[in-house]
Amino acid sequence: MPGPDGPLESSTPPAGPAVAGPEGAKGRPGFAAELREIVQDLWHYRELLYQLTLRDVRIRYKQAIMGFGWALFMPSLIVLSGFLVRIVMAHLSGTTLETSSVAGIAVKAMPWGFFVGAIGFATGSLTGNLNLVTKIYFPREVLPLASVLAMGFDTLIGTAALIAVLPLLGVTLSAALLWVPVLALLVFCFTAGVSLLLSCANLFFRDVKYIVQLLLTFGIFFTPVFFDAVMFGPTGLHIVMLNPLAPLLEGLRLSVVQGHHLLVPLIETTSSGQQVLVWSPWYLGYSAVWAVLGLLGGAVLFHRAEFLFAEYV
Amino acid sequence: MPCCSTGRSSSSPNTCDASMTAPGIEVRGVWKKFRRGEIHDSLRDLVPALARRVLGRIPKSGALAPGEFWALQDIDFEVRPGQALGIIGSNGAGKSTILKTMTRILRPNRGYCTVGGRIGALIEVAAGFHPDLTGRENVFLQGAIMGMPAHLAREKFDAIVEFSGIADFIDTPVKRYSSGMHARLGFSIAAHLDPDVLIIDEVLSVGDFAFQRKAFDRIATLAKSGIPVVVVSHQLDRIAALCTEALLLERGRIAHRGPAADCIATYVLGDNRAPVDAADCPVRLERLAMAGPSEVRSGDWARFRISGTVLRPVTENLELVALRIRALQTGEVVFATSSSHCEVELPPIGPFAVDVALQLNVPAANYVIETNVWDPIRHRDASPGPTTRIEVTEGASFYGPVQMNAGMALARDPS
Questions:
Q1: How many C-beta neighbours within 10 Å does residue A311 have?
Q2: Residue A168: HSE in the Cβ half-sphere, 13 Å Cα cutoff
Q3: Fewer CB within 10 Å, N side or C side of chain A?
Q4: Would an 8 Å CB–CB cutoff place B305 in contact with chain A?
């Protein structure tokens, strides 16, 4: 039986006229038990998750000029902007822009577009469905997760187009491509975790969505999408890689464009003969920890706050 | 701390409860507090609140912080299979809050609710509709929101569309629906949930007259199929028709519990005792005495005497001895009259008594006779008088809500 207190309230059983259930003083369940509960809930409501994802996908393509072209528009725009930035950089440093750099930008534009889009939609997912949140019971996790999944669907379409284009940019098949699903999964987990946290935060404080919008707009300057992390020099690389998304994006570029095996460090020799570290497997480990802890932590925090949603909206 | 693997948890899916709990609703010692005004909705308010929490100066959840109030106090009841419980009370009495704790939208501050089995909640039946999606798409979406498994939604799709009566528009976006069509489709989905427990909140008045009847019949069928049912409604006659038992809520407390008719009677009578400033009323009604037994057969006459005092000469336009017969089952006034309609003049001053005779051409049920001094200008009681209950039993039989004293004779020239 549930404890008498909400998860964010006092955990001491109150003295008062009413007596709580016999298990009333048991307190909140452990982390693992809560995770199991979340998974059970989601499994039970998998049909709802599917239907909400379908809804989010459908409404984006109904009564819209762009139709499915929308899925290509945003990544194309990112690639184009990156292309422009890199041309200017090449011009200033007196070199030419290689096609592999363009391929790198194109590869990184996909997960970045996914992250920005998913976070943008998910942040408002609870507040945009208040009539459901206050009236009908279902695990509220499905709302932000459906936004993320719907964006995932868009990204798949974009990725299909990207796969068609990449050979033209000189990308060849390699065993390192097997890293792509792993990295994609990590990006998904991290995005889902952040989405859960932000949607929940936005329910309590409506200004969160404005802050998020700002961060997403300027986030591209703190994430190696247009540029490669190695361009910042040895110290700069470490700092850039602190962004949990950075190793995932760089990992995608290295595995797809350069066919690099990500469990091996990559050291490149620059034109001036210097040995420069480009990739270390530790980066991947660091991001993986963020992704997994982000998802688990986000899910549990969301779950604990869930009971307050209907009251605090 | 023991692992809660064996405990029923409020946040596990309903189906998990089903295997462990008997079908039914159990609400035990539920207290729920709400806050008046805005809750800290900016960081400026949150930081001090968090600081207090961290420093351990949390107000006990048994006590009320300033601005808080109990929306539910010690609510305790259960509904077993075959029972249909009605919940009645004025606005803000806590009816919907109880439903929300049962459907796990709100978590009680104290006490617990367990619901065994899949809940079918007929609450906001069209809340999940997306205007840009077609009726067909919305059926599956709303079905999923209400917890309908995919195979059931596909299986019942035709029945849902047929019940709603909007088959021609099922592939039209619902934004082009009329509000009646919208509500009908929503109700039809909810009505095909096949729940283990049914919870109904004010959805008995959707659509036109024909659909309302159809909807009510559907709910009555569900309610009589033996599953536990909870109904919240202001339509007291619906509660009376559907429910075996009822709860009367008053400001978050259970004020009365009992057979639906009794409970409705308590509610209706209590509601009438609203204080009226009767100090300057020229007439005071003091006594209402039945001449016979308080049990009368339908179609028979009831006789009683109303006595009172004229305190000062009457200058206002008042109906001095007014009378209302109210059906206790529904709270509806079925008949009203007054001394001025019956052309009775009261003495200019001093005590008086008026003898009244009423032919009770009403169906067998419980009624209340209310007396009052009626102010027709301001349309309210100028001064309330005594009341009495009267039970009308089956009598000279007639069918329908009114006795029309039908006469029939065989015609001699059938042409």
A1: 17
A2: 7
A3: C
A4: no
Give tens-digit pLDDT for B339-357.
888 888 889 889 999 999 9
Contact with chain A for residue B359, Cβ under 8 A: no
Q: Is B54 on the interface with A (CB under 8 A)?
A: no
DSSP 8-class letter at B238:
H
Query: Is residue B58 within 8 angstroms of chain A, CB to CB?
Result: yes
Going by the DSSP 8-state scheme, the letter that residue A258 receives in this structure is S
Cross-chain residue pair A58–B137, CB shorter than 8 Å: yes
Which residue of chain A has the CA closest to B128? A132
Stated pTM of the model: 0.78
Cα dist. B394→B236, B241, B296, B338 in Å?
Answer: 22, 18, 9, 27
Instruction: Tell me what ipTM this predicted complex has.
Output: 0.82
Residues of B in contact with A4 (CB under 8 A): 61, 108-112
Residue B185 to residue B164: CA distance in whole angstroms: 5
| B107: closest chain A residue by CA | A307
Examine the pLDDT at B101 and tell me if it is beyond 50.
Answer: yes
pLDDT tens figures, B46-87: 666 666 655 655 455 566 777 788 899 999 999 988 889 999
Between CA B205 and CA B211 the distance in angstroms is 9
CA distance B117 to B28: 18
Q: Give the H or E element holding residue B309.
A: strand B301-310
Of residues A14, A18, A55, nearest to B60 (C-beta): A14
Q: Say if domain B276-393 classifies as CATH 3.30.830.10.
A: no
